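Changelog note: in this version the structure field was regenerated for every chain. One regenerated record is shown below for reference.
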Amino acid sequence: MERENRNMKKYQDKNWLQQKYTVEKKSTPEIGKILNCSQKTIYNWLKKLNIQIRAKFRPLEERFWEKVDKNGLNGCWIWIAGLMNGYGAIDVEGKMRGAHVVSWELHNGRKVKNGYIIHHKCKHGNKKCVNPMHLQEMTKAEHDEHHSKLTGQQVLEIRAD
């Protein structure tokens, strides 16, 4: 029995897992990070050990911020949950949305304007960053111009020649 306990992973210990998940209210990504395993592993063990899973329909803001690590390099707040095309992703009313967009909307108290996108201003365009101070609303044309090596004015001058 002692040997079996030594080989048991912490997430297999019902008391330990219940303490972290139910009492301390840590999320599955947070517990996974502590134990260096996936949130799916933690979720599966919660079910296997009959630990009641929190309702999925908790407030968006609560579900959102538990999936953010605010200790990233260069002031980036890193999304530690699911990704979609390299960007953080979160379920909002049954639809997957970019975590950076949701962060910007939560911070600004409004939806992104029609025809606009949310641009990462942080160094190297860190797709996992959700720090609202690193995000900027801009048109697709502005975004394309921002990533272009030539400015719009330079393009016009070249075409005029």
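Spot check on this record: Helices lie at 2-7, 14-23, 28-35, 39-48, 60-65, 99-108, 140-147, 152-160. DSSP finds eight helices and seven strands in the chain.
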